[in-house]
Amino acid sequence: MTDIQSIVVLTGAGISAESGVPTFRGPDGLWEGHRVEDVATPDAYARDPDLVLDFYDQRRANLDRVTPNEAHEALGRLDAEWPGELLIVTQNVDDLHERGGATRLLHMHGELKKGWCLACDARAPFDGTMADRPACASCGTAGQIRPDIVWFGEMPYEMDRIDDALAACDLFVSIGTSGAVYPAAGFVQGARHHGARTLELNLEPSEGSIFFHESRMGRAGELVPAWVDEMLG
Ligand code: OAD
Fold this sequence. Notes:
32% of the residues lie in helices and 20% in strands. The protein has nine helices and nine strands. It has helices spanning 14-17, 36-39, 42-47, 49-62, 70-81, 96-99, 159-168, 187-193, 220-232, and strands at residues 6-11, 85-90, 105-107, 110-117, 123-125, 145-149, 171-175, 197-202, 214-217. A six-stranded parallel sheet has the order 3-2-1-7-8-9, sandwiched between helices. Helix 5 (70-81) runs parallel beside helix 9 (220-232) and helix 7 (159-168) packs across helix 8. 2'-O-acetyl adenosine-5-diphosphoribose binds at residues 12-14, 17-18, 23-25, 36, 40, 91, 109, 150, 176-178, 180-181, 202-204, 206, 219-220. 2'-O-acetyl adenosine-5-diphosphoribose (OAD) is lined by residues 12-14, 17-18, 23-25, 36, 40, 91, 109, 150, 176-178, 180-181, 202-204, 206, 219-220.
């Protein structure tokens, strides 16, 4: 891949699978035993906040039991050594990219380790148990902190910055995502429309596989380090 200066990488749950974080769309259609609309929508939170807070508390606690894998670490290396532009856009709410060394990183679906106070609108790092209804560090109101996670029906974060990066990139790489959830599923077409080369690294063809110039099928832990080696020469 010659003449590449600017890269956008999109990652999804597949990049964290080898770290032991479950993906969303398992064969049973359930996500850790729940239907997505029972835990990942504003309606679910309004209907049963205890269930939703407890679900995300468990997922947050699980982060202490997992570590970044070779794919996260390879992207950390790319981030440190790539001399051109790079933006890693992750749909993942875990913190494995950061722990793998990525800094040019954006969490478009929010982060497990952040809370959003609905009383004062502050978003802040959070590492406790929301089901205990803690007080907000900014305004002191108790019981108003929800996970700072983009639920179905809510707008993903930093879309303007992402759109600008997609329009300017020479290479778009999608890693470990099923291509089932928009707007991320449309990034490949957006980047291609602006003339970027597009590459997919996934265990199996994603729903939008036909839109990529090239698809490589396999485990992220193998494919991503090999691709980063190619890029860094
Ligand atoms: P999915 O669970 O839909 O897709 C994960 C993809 O990773 C699938 O295509 C798998 O084949 C692939 N995969 C699994 N293991 C892999 C491995 N070891 N190496 C490479 N690929 C592997 O997850 P996402 O596409 O990330 O949104 O889901 C997108 C969004 O849907 C999530 O961000 C979440 C969810 O609802 C919100 O929570 C807002």
